[in-house]
Design a protein that fits this description.
Strands 2-1-3-4-5 form a 5-stranded parallel beta sheet, sandwiched between helices. It is globular, with a radius of gyration of 17 Å. The chain is α/β, with parallel strands linked by helices. Helix content is about 50%, strand content about 15%. The chain has 9 helices and 5 strands, in the order E-H-E-H-H-E-H-H-E-H-E-H-H-H.
């Protein structure tokens, strides 16, 4: 059981969000998971240009750290996304990574995986930003198990309770992987999304050969 935690705060070891990501990973580790931590702000990930090369060929025009990171995500059973709230959204570093995952969306490449999200904020919308990260994971095909959002502006000590909640979330993530937990509402939404992308790719099979071949190899088309 492999779980990867991705922290998108640029504050390095001083990051409060990092403490939450590490809390989730520690809870998962105690539940038997093999954990990996990634500081995405230490990587070079270039902007998506919407060229469509990944749809057609399954590769990107950029030469940077993203393919190796994606390989780690695809190799994992569980994925933890963590970001502070920057103007009611994830940091630019995480958004850049998510934008590079367009082929992952079309192929629903995180199907069968589980995920969760954590967020810190100065005064508001930590839960909402965490919801966004979980929605991103769902859009890639993953089943999500929850979130931890902590407001640290008015109470710096709130992070201590947040770490405790994060550890519980990590255990929940590991348990979901071990038991192959499923939420009926999410399952229905994931199925509907998969069928949508299969139809769209079938319509564009001459243009998006890689993705058409991907679904054919899965015997889904």
């Amino acid at each position: 059981m492999k779980i990867i935690g991705i922290n998108a705060s640029p504050k390095g070891e001083k990051s409060q969000t990092r403490r939450l990501v590490m809390g989730v990973l520690e809870g998962a580790r105690q539940a038997g998971a093999d954990i990996t931590f990634v500081d995405i702000c230490g990587l070079e990930i270039k902007y998506c240009t919407a060229c469509g090369t990944c749809y057609a060929k399954g590769e990107c025009i950029h030469d940077d750290d993203f393919p190796a990171l994606l390989e780690k995500m695809l190799d994992a059973d569980g994925i933890v996304l963590g970001s502070p709230n920057y103007i009611n959204m994830v940091t630019g570093q995480l958004k850049t990574m998510l934008d590079r995952m367009a082929d992952v969306v079309h192929c629903q490449a995180l199907s069968g995986k589980y995920g969760c999200a954590v967020c810190t904020a100065g005064g508001s919308k930590a839960d909402e930003v965490a919801d966004y990260m979980n929605e991103a994971l769902s859009s890639f095909g993953a089943m999500t198990v929850g979130k931890t959002g902590v407001l640290v502006g008015a109470d710096p000590n709130a992070i201590v309770g947040g770490e405790k909640d994060a550890k519980a979330l990590g255990k929940k993530l590991a348990d979901a992987i071990k038991t192959k937990w499923s939420d009926p509402a999410q399952e229905a939404a994931l199925k509907e999304r998969k069928e949508y992308f299969k139809r769209m790719i079938s319509f564009n099979k001459d243009l998006w050969k890689h993705e058409y071949d991907y679904w054919k190899d899965l015997k889904e088309l």
